[in-house]
Design brief:
This protein has six helices and 15 strands. By secondary structure, it is of the alpha+beta class. The strands form three sheets. It has an eleven-stranded antiparallel beta sheet, with helices on both faces. The chain is globular, with a radius of gyration of 20 Å.
């Protein structure tokens, strides 16, 4: 992998990740951009203990542009984008409309491919491996920024999720706090350790899923993909490395090599859940990594959670009264049935 770091016209950082060592990335950003102006602020909810990012500058962000005006496609004559080069493998840049900025953290955009009409599932294993390298490198770099407590790599896919740019891409948030969901995991981890005299909750969850077997979707030598026992979403898959590690940086070479194969297969199955004539399945893919300074971060288990809000053909799972008002999820699809369907739509050998 070759990494090339440069700057966009307004000073934001842009990083190219190339599979070829001889790739040259020297195109200048010729757009007359004004300096980025953000108003990001973190506020604390005293009742719930949550943090809320207030980011009013995002109201003016790019919203569903036509394909020939996509800001994530490579630049071409007469049409300059966020990527000055005429082609790229993987590109990462600071978001022009970040939810988090300055002392409130940092947001980056990860462009998986220059092909506007592709998706992550269309990548080759080599391309997906390069994205994994980019996620890992950005986790390492962002972890060094002052005040950053947690690095979150994720992909939102589909207009139903709220995606405003159709080009295949993800994002990385560097939070200046530990997120509420992670804090809940850490509390459960500590409670399980105390209740069992030192047992690890993540290890127990993976062991129980393997022992039961009914919710296993796919198993490799180094990774396990399953629908969790108490899945919140209609179709939800968790991917765990079999050797527990706290973050992407700690994955060994064997796990890195196998991950693209398994992950791409799971994504392709997601697009087959609702039949051959259904539109692409909207989803969120979220990497859970240990907070940087948690006392028990070594006991945390890196894992990826993939889920869709589509519950059946043409129907979405909405977060209504119980979910939004009380954070109590109601799932219409039994996890065992979801796992069976995801096994049924496996790629043909």
């Amino acid at each position: 992998m070759k990494k090339t770091t440069t700057r966009l016209a307004d000073g934001r950082e842009l990083i190219y990740y190339d599979a070829r060592d001889d790739a040259v990335r020297d195109a200048d950003d010729r757009r007359p951009l004004d300096p980025v102006s953000t108003a990001s602020e973190i506020r604390h909810d005293r009742l719930l203990g949550d943090r809320v990012a207030i980011a009013s500058h995002r109201q003016g962000r790019t919203y569903h542009p036509p394909a020939d005006e996509c800001p994530l496609c490579p630049s071409r004559e007469g049409r300059h984008s966020e990527i000055p080069e005429a082609d790229y493998d993987v590109a990462v840049f600071e978001n022009r409309f970040p939810s988090l900025a300055g002392d409130s953290g940092r947001c980056e955009v990860v462009c998986f491919t220059p092909d506007h009409d592709a998706s992550f599932a269309d990548l080759t294993e080599e391309q997906a491996a390069l994205v994994l390298e980019a996620w890992t490198d950005r986790t390492a770099e962002l972890s060094q920024l002052p005040g950053v407590q947690q690095v979150f790599c994720f992909e939102n896919r589909g207009a139903e999720i709220g995606v405003t740019l159709a080009h295949p891409h993800g994002q990385i948030y560097a939070y200046p706090f530990v997120t509420p969901r992670t804090e809940r995991m850490l509390r459960s981890l500590a409670a399980h350790r105390e209740a069992t005299g030192g047992g690890n909750l993540f290890d127990a969850v993976v062991a129980d899923e393997r022992a039961d077997g009914s919710r296993i979707v796919l198993e490799g030598e180094h990774w396990l993909a399953f629908v969790p026992y108490a899945a919140h979403w209609p179709y939800e898959v968790h991917l765990y490395p079999k050797r527990r590690v706290p973050d992407l940086l700690a994955l060994d070479e064997a796990a890195r090599t196998e991950f693209p194969q398994l992950y791409l297969e799971v994504l392709r199955r997601f697009d087959r859940i609702f039949g051959p004539d259904a539109p692409p399945t909207p989803y969120i893919a979220a990497w859970h990594q240990a907070p940087l300074h948690a006392p028990d971060r070594a006991e945390f288990a890196l894992h990826l959670e993939l889920f869709t809000i589509r519950r059946t053909s043409g129907k979405l799972k909405f977060l209504a009264g119980s979910e939004s008002g009380m954070n109590v999820f109601i799932n219409d699809v039994p996890p065992e049935a979801a796992a069976e369907r995801l096994r049924e739509v496996a790629s043909k050998p």
